[in-house]
Each structure stands twice: as C-alpha cells, then as structure tokens.
Amino acid sequence: MIGWRAPLALAGARWAAKRLGHGHDPEPPPRPAGGDLLGVLPWAAAGVAAGVGAAALSRRRRTGRLTGRVALVVGGSRGLGLQLAREFAAGGASVVVCGRDTDSLDRAVAELTGRGAAAHGVSCDVADPDQVRAMVAEAAARFGRLDFVVNNAGIMRIGPQEALAEEHFRAAMDVMFWAPFHVGRAALDHLRATSGTLVNIISIGGEVAVPHLLPYSCAKAAARALSEGLSAETAGTGVHVTTVVPGLMRTGSHRGVAFTGAPEREYVWFAFLAGLPLLSVGVERAARHIVRAAARGRGHLLITPMARVGTAVHGIAPGLTQAGLGVVGRLLPAAPEQVEERDGVEASRSPAGRLVDAIGTLNERAGDRLNQEPRARRG
Ligand SMILES: NC(=O)c1ccc[n+]([C@@H]2O[C@H](COP(=O)([O-])OP(=O)(O)OC[C@H]3O[C@@H](n4cnc5c(N)ncnc54)[C@H](OP(=O)(O)O)[C@@H]3O)[C@@H](O)[C@H]2O)c1
Fold first, then answer.
1. Where is the Ketoreductase domain (predicted)?
2. Contact, 359 vs 242, CB < 8 A?
3. CA gyration radius for the chain?
C-alpha cells in the first residue's frame, strides 16, 4: 500500500535536499550557522504532507468504492477467498463467504467479525445447483444487496491422466465450470440492480493445459470461455465481469490438494513449484489487485509474471509451449501399476516432502495464516 506514497514524500525531501545543496546557485550567499537546516524544514514538511495527503486521498477513493457495498466470495472460507473477503472488508464492504466445511467457515466468519467487518457465512456445496441458488438468495437477503460476487471455489487433483477416472473430470467441471455458471445465473439480476461486478477466478492452467492437472485445466478453460463470453454479453448493461488469470499464488492450498498415482512423488514437484518465491506471488498482493480490479470493473486481470509470459508465448507460438510442456510431462512421475491417492498433508510425509516443505516455507506460513488444513495432522 505504501507503493506510490513513499516516492512522493521522497520527491519532497529530494527537492528540499537540492535546495540545501544550492543546486541552482553557483555562488550562494553566506548563511548563519543552522540557517540551512531551518530553510529546508518547510520543504521537507511540505513533501511529507503531500505524501500523506495523497495516501489519504487514495485510501478514501478505494474505500469509497467499497463502503456500504456487499461482496459474496464463493469459496471464501480459506486460501485466496478468505484473503479476498479480508480485503473487501478492509475497504468497508460487508462480506458473505461460503464453503462446505462448517468448521473452517465458522473460523473465517469469526476472524472477519473480529476485524470489525459485517460478515456472514453460508454452508454450501457449489456442485449442487439448488444449494447455489439458495446461497446467492441468502447472501443477497442478509445485507440487502450484492455488489460483488466472486467465483473463487476450486478443487485440485494432481496425477497422470491414466491414473484419473472420468468422475474426477466431472467433479472438476461441477465445481469450477458449472458452479460459476449457476452462480452467475443466480447473481446477475442482483448485480444489474447495483451495477455490480461478477469476478471469475480462472488460472494460468486454463490458458495453457498443464500435464498432471488435466481435470483442473479443462474446467478452468471452460470457465474462462464462460467468463469472457459473459463479459461481452453484459457489456453496456451496467454489470461488469472480471476474468482473473493468476499464476501460482502462495495460498497454502497444497495441503488440501488430492494427489493420485504416486502421491508422494507428485507432491514433491507440485509443492516445490507452488512454494518457490520466484514463481509464486504472495496472496495478500494478489487479493489487493483482484479487489481493485473488481471495484474498477476491469474486464481482465493477469497476475504474476509467469502468467503474463505463459499466456503471451502460448498466444503467439502455441507449438512452442506444447513442446516445452511435453518435456515437462516426461519428467513427471509415471502412473504406477498400483494407483494410490492421498491429500497434501498425508502425501508430504516422505523425507523429500518434508524437505520441499522446508524450502517452501513461505507457502507453509501462508497456509497457517489462511485457515488451511493444520499441518499438525501430518504426525
Ligand atoms: N493457489 C494457486 O496458486 C492458484 C493459482 C491460480 C488459480 N487459483 C484459483 O484460485 C482459487 C482459490 O485457490 P486457493 O489456492 O485459495 O484454494 P483453496 O485454498 O483450496 O480454497 C478453495 C476454497 O473453495 C472452497 N470449495 C471447494 N470446493 C467447494 C465446493 N464444492 N462448494 C463450496 N466451496 C468449495 C473451499 O472450501 P471447502 O473445501 O470447505 O468447501 C475453499 O474455501 C481457485 O479457484 C483456484 O483454482 C489458485
């Protein structure tokens, strides 16, 4: 948030320093001792005041867009969704979060309320269209309006396609394509009434199909088409649709991911990449960008340099990314004869898994901050 405030204050101080150094005066008149310092103080004070004033203005403009508004974050009980709810609430919005697990939902609502937010939780499995419609209706009724609706719920199953069943693809489509479809259908009238924004969290995996993530990539690609199509069809109606394409974010979600095939080996490569600071971005920063884009009704947002480069290269030379991912695919663990399945906490029990967790310490800490499955279960 300091972002552009600091440069303003610095510019004021630098201006003052220039005057102190008599930058424009080759032969400065003699001054009494201490006069330089006294002369520069008003300029330094003006620089700091300009920085502080600009910061306050920026904060007022940001909160101005959110105060009195209502945000529904689907899948807001943990991870990125919880951080988005915190960000909306920090700007003055009331928030409704949903998820299946009532314990983590209750913890999320208690935390948001503890921060002074007006928050409400709805227990809902978004794979069920009836539950989705009831959830959107309850969210709209709770605070009387809906200004932002974020399709954030996601699930991930990692493994080679030979180890995956058709039902795994269907489950991914239910949560990451059909759920946004039903949420959008139920929410659009509410959003039209407030000139609100529907936000769809897609993924770089929906732009470029990633090996061992096929159900996820298929569902995200379909969701991206839905989001961009809705954006085009609602243009000029007052409703905005924001398509968000993040690269890797440190949300600590690897603990809850399902690993199939050779789970311990799948865990190692995935948790390693997800935790690398150079490849992944902090979730707080990502959430700030997303909420700002939603408040401005931006159509598209790419997050992380990797997502920008990946999307651009794939758009220009899809054969090249295909060849590169072919190499990656050959490096990933082959499907074993005996297919096994574990969640991230269990799959991390190998020595290599523990080492990867130690390397990806930022992602581990994010998991603790973001209400993720406790590591203590690992034993
Ligand atoms: N993390 C990344 O690097 C990354 C990168 C690109 C895109 N994304 C996308 O960003 C979004 C958030 O990711 P994340 O890492 O924060 O995931 P996460 O920590 O696993 O959180 C997922 C959220 O969705 C909810 N959810 C899952 N299935 C649901 C269902 N059937 N019904 C209702 N709620 C459900 C979860 O709650 P319950 O489990 O209690 O239901 C949880 O609140 C996802 O759409 C993901 O695909 C993530």
1. 69-252
2. no
3. 24
Q: Please indicate, yes or no, if residue 329 is contained in any of the structural domains.
A: yes
Q: Angle formed by the axes of helices 214-234 and 179-194, to 10°?
A: 30
DSSP per residue over 256-277, as a string? T-EEEESHHHHHHHHHHHHH-T
Residue (of 357, 331, 325) closest to 205 by Cα position: 325
Does the annotation count 216 as an active-site position?
yes
Q: What is the pLDDT of residue 36?
A: 57
Q: Determine the pLDDT at residue 6.
A: 46
pLDDT at 352: 96
Q: Indicate whether residue 83 lines ligand 1 (CB < 6 A).
A: no
Residue 244's domain spans which residues? Answer: 67-304+312-317+324-378
CA of 126 to the centre of ligand 1 (A): 11
256 lines ligand 1 (CB under 6 A): yes
Instruction: Tell me the three state secondary structure of residue 343.
Output: strand
* Strand duo 258-261 + 340-343: pairing: antiparallel
Cα–Cα distance, 103 to 22 (Å, whole number)? 65
Give the DSSP letter string of 108-174.
Answer: HHHHHHHTT--EEEEE--TTSHHHHHHHHHHHHHHHS--SEEEE-----EES-GGG--HHHHHHHHI
Tally of structural domains, the chain: 1
Which regions in the chain score pLDDT beneath 50?
A: 1-6, 8-9, 12-13, 16-17, 19-35, 58-59, 62-63
Residue 125 CB less than 6 A away from ligand 1: yes
Is residue 152 domain-resident? yes
Q: Evaluate whether 85 touches 149 at the Cβ level (below 8 Å).
A: no
Q: Is residue 1 part of a domain?
A: no
